[in-house]
Amino acid sequence: MKIPRLLIAATHSGAGKTTLATALMAAFTRAGFAVQPFKVGPDYIDPGYHTAATGRISRNLDTFFLGTAGVREVFARAASGADLCIIEGVMGLYDGKGATERGSSAEVAKALEAPVLLVVNARSMSRSAAALVLGYRLFDPRVRLAGVLLNRVGGPRHYVMLKEAIEKQAGVPVLGWVGRREEISLPHRHLGLLPAVEKNALADHLERLVAVLEEGVDLFRLLETARAAPLLPETTRKIFPAAPLPSRVRLGVVRDAAFNFYYQDGLELLAALGAEIVFVSALADPALPPELDGLYIGGGFPEMFLEKLAANKGFLESLRRAFHRGMPVYAECGGLMYLCRAICDFEGREYPMAGLLPGVCRMHSRRVALGYCEARVLADNILAPAGTRLVGHEFHYSSIEGMPRDFPRAYALYREGDREGVLDGYVHGNLLASYLHLHFASCPEVARRFIDRCEDYKRQRVMGC
Q1: pLDDT bracket for residue 188 (50, 70, 90)
Q2: Which of 7, 29, 91, 363 sits at 20 to 30 Å (Cα–Cα) from 295?
Q3: Residue 195 vs residue 222, higher pLDDT
Q4: Quick one: average pLDDT of 220-249?
Q5: Residues forming the active site
Q6: Helix/strand/coil (H/E/C) assignment for every residue in the chain
């Protein structure tokens, strides 16, 4: 399959990779190309900007979750109908899980045989930039470093000096530059970049990004580079069924400004396996819609909307009723927080929540957990039987306090370097809530079991009527 593609990587985090990748996506989209965006790794926030820039939903490419074959399948499936695929990398080009390349931008580039455009923060650098680029070029010969994009350049004279040194001494073409324009930086908050769904006047911001980019970047050469990518390596279908299965359950998915951390391919897999996805809002809807057979509450930023969430008593009460009727409820991270008796914000103020778990969620000024982990399921639940091994990701600034010691725990999590598992999450009847983010495309059998449990509940609900 011939798919023009380009992976935008960087020497390190903070080099401006997300800003420039989003600007490139927007520039090509405005030039009339159908641009399919992707993000390497488990990030939920950057894809929101990609989607806003292109009008096509961004997908996550993660070799830790999906493996090489899975990444190729997800990529090829999403690339259908696109003129150009732009993949934003994660961290530095070669940074992966621990000291390995697993999950890195480089591993994804090799899996897809994608040309790499390296973003270099050139502030306060001259000839040393050539040494830096040369090191990245030689570190792994299987990674095709096809060009360099210089960021935070001091001006035209600085750019000419950098370009000459890099092309002559590192042997990599320099395809453009962006000056020191702090006004184009994307906004941040305690978990990282501000979600695109909260960004006011995002269209105007994207226009500024494109205008700045077009001043010094050779978009035509970038397009040629992407079109020079080889045929996509063939892979066998392993994740999605050959044809979507008939709908058999109505699955509510809470998606709004407070809860919007979902992997698009995970949602589409649930749909392909027989779930009719019904999006609901814990902020705006007065109650859960009728005749739901299950509920999925993903992560997000509930701590930024506590007053509004607590004030929506009708929605909270309908959730309690559905839970007590036995409806399967699966919650990740922000969803776990929402299901607690209360959330205590950064200033120590407490807001009542759903109360399906008796504990209180407390926000902290410092990050509690970040990174990939492996999980062993401790108790049979709506996703998996006890003993199942799963892979996931954590990223949170909160912890749960006041839970009874004998309350059934969901997982033992094994983080990088851990020999003993850390207890996480809770199981309560047909409820499973945890800080662990799962990618359903990494474990289709878990998605299938969840839908099966929803179908069991539907059967009971219909018979009860």
Answers
A1: low
A2: 363
A3: 222
A4: 92
A5: 333
A6: CCCCEEEEEECCCCCCHHHHHHHHHHHHHHCCCCEEEEEECCCCCHHHHHHHHHCCCCEEECHHHHHHHHHHHHHHHHHCCCCEEEEECCCCCCCCCCCCCCCCHHHHHHHHCCCEEEEEECCCCCCHHHHHHHHHHHHCCCCCEEEEEEEEECCHHHHHHHHHHHHHHCCCCEEEEEECCHHHCCCEECCEECCHHHCCCHHHHHHHHHHHHHHHECHHHHHHHHHCCCCCCCCCCCCCCCCCCCCCEEEEEECCCCEEECCHHHHHHHHHCCEEEEEECCCCCCCCCCCCCEEEECEECHHHCHHHHHHCHHHHHHHHHHHHCCCCEEEECHHHHHHEEEEECCCCCEEECCCCEEEEEEECCCCCEEEEEEEEECCCCCCCCCCCEEEEEEEECEEEECCCCCCCEEEEEEECCCCCCEEEEEEECCEEEECCECCHHHCHHHHHHHHHHHHHHHHHHHHHC
